[in-house]
UniProtKB/TrEMBL annotation:
<dbReference type="InterPro" id="IPR051601">
    <property type="entry name" value="Serine_prot/Carboxylest_S33"/>
</dbReference>
<keyword id="KW-0378">Hydrolase</keyword>
<feature type="domain" description="Peptidase S33 tripeptidyl aminopeptidase-like C-terminal">
    <location>
        <begin position="478"/>
        <end position="578"/>
    </location>
</feature>
<feature type="transmembrane region" description="Helical">
    <location>
        <begin position="51"/>
        <end position="72"/>
    </location>
</feature>
<dbReference type="Pfam" id="PF08386">
    <property type="entry name" value="Abhydrolase_4"/>
</dbReference>
<feature type="domain" description="AB hydrolase-1">
    <location>
        <begin position="169"/>
        <end position="356"/>
    </location>
</feature>
<keyword id="KW-0812">Transmembrane</keyword>
<dbReference type="GO" id="GO:0016787">
    <property type="term" value="F:hydrolase activity"/>
</dbReference>
<protein>
    <submittedName>
        <fullName>Alpha/beta hydrolase</fullName>
    </submittedName>
</protein>
<dbReference type="Pfam" id="PF00561">
    <property type="entry name" value="Abhydrolase_1"/>
</dbReference>
<keyword id="KW-0732">Signal</keyword>
<comment type="similarity">
    <text>Belongs to the peptidase S33 family.</text>
</comment>
<keyword id="KW-0472">Membrane</keyword>
<feature type="region of interest" description="Disordered">
    <location>
        <begin position="1"/>
        <end position="41"/>
    </location>
</feature>
<dbReference type="InterPro" id="IPR029058">
    <property type="entry name" value="AB_hydrolase_fold"/>
</dbReference>
<keyword id="KW-1133">Transmembrane helix</keyword>
<dbReference type="InterPro" id="IPR000073">
    <property type="entry name" value="AB_hydrolase_1"/>
</dbReference>
Amino acid sequence: MSDSPRPDDLPEAPTGYAALPPSYAAPTGASGPAGVPSSTTATARSSLRTLLAAVAIVAVVAAVVLAAWRLGSPPVVAQPAPPAPSATPVVPIPTPTATQSAPVTADYPPALRDFYTQQVAWSPCSDNAKHECGTMQVPVDYADPAGGRFTLALRKAPATDPSRRIGSLVINPGGPGGSGVEYAQYSSFVFSPEVRAAYDIVGFDPRGIGASSPVRCLGNPDMDLLFSDDPTPDSAAERTKLLADVDAITERCATRGGDRAMHMSTAEVARDMDVMRVLLGDERLNFFGGSYGTFLGAMYADAFPKKVGRMVLDSAMSPNQTEQQEMTYDIQGFESSIDAFIDWCVARPDCALGNDKGSARQKIVDLLDAVEQHGLSTSKPGLTTIGEGWVGFSIFMCLYSDSSWPTLNRGLAQALTGSGDVLLAKGMSVVERNASGAYAPTTYLQAMIPVRCADWPRSSSDPSLAADQAKAKKDHPLWARMTGELYDNCRTWPTTGRTPKGTTLAAGAAPILVIGNERDPATPIGGTKQLAKDLASGVLLTSDHDGHGTYYAGNPCVDSAVDGYLLRGTAPADGSTC
């Protein structure tokens, strides 16, 4: 791990995708064991994976933006690992169809025939002739397939060794709001050479997101307001303003988004993926989902259990999570991640928090309290002063990967002098806000309200839960400041949210591999373990590492286990650790 802040984290660096390198191929001559690249390849991959912060966003409760939301990216954890756990054959996973031209069983509803029988016109992508781009159509409302349609953008990185081709591997980076098209664009950095040789890597932008008939329901002022409001109100007046602003933003999003915004649920995206499976020529869906993409994978498996092929859910969360469970997991994930950072920092002579682990946490609490009162000055036009919203969000983002710890150390040191340039640059890079105040059209913030309000039930008004929340905030003061006010940000959304089943998911599905890091601030390991348990055929593999994102992130043990599953249909023993 480099001791220097990342270039894209610094104030002078460009924000958004302008910071990405022009070439995406691994360095010539890179070699190494399966799933373990050479040092040169690993350095290039590590750099790019962290730059992809806005590509693979994860849903986590980040009240610094809106109290019930979370967001993030799959970073790199470049640490040594023990040998892979011995692979244990599980229930055989049928080998996927070997060619796209193979017939696929026609078991779709007759009313959806036009969608399941359409043709995808693939053509070379403009930025990489080796990749193929195309589109497909799905109904806005599956209950009214003759009505409006979403046009979904697809990108395919064909199997590099056609003689070894197994089938398609559909991928989703999370968010909600992450672009699967961009995820596939950089597939050589996020999947091993062996997996890329055997699968067509297929990414797509979910309905209403990215290049898939995008629903853009928030303006730049709306998104700035999410960060500028005080996330930890100290008075009734401050709380009233916060809730009024959130309610107004949610209501504006519903009005601007219209009918399409009412149909951006993950359950509907799962149905889109089944149409995609047939169009790709696969009898079963092979899928890799990261972060919120694990929620999508679980929803697909529950809706189409007999169509599940080889499915990997990395850094997971369960559709069955209750508010109480989510809060418990959040605290565990945050506490373990901040402790890991503090342990690293206080061992350094230049640690912004000093060398006393016992007082380091309180120094961050005191800093956030001071920021709430006085703000931090910055050199960014239009944001000459930032408050607790931007600062807390940026600190949280730096916990997603140990590669960002040096940046966090520098940002905290600068903040203690009253300046917020480093932290602001980090936050702006994640949400794709440029110096002039414009957010990229692809920012995942556009999808957060429509998807979140469709996917989760409205927050409970149970007094016992409110008491539990109050006690948790008192017992965990730093977490409380990072999480902010707990409230229902969907109360002005016109449709009701999904009701979790609360029972076993995907009964009858083939084995599903669920993986996660022990110290993940975004999708805490508690949620990953719960998903593996909730899935009838879930197989759990945990990694004793920090950060968010497990596969192909520096742990050869995990890489070997995942590759063995995807390539040979065997999974490690349930409960294995790396």
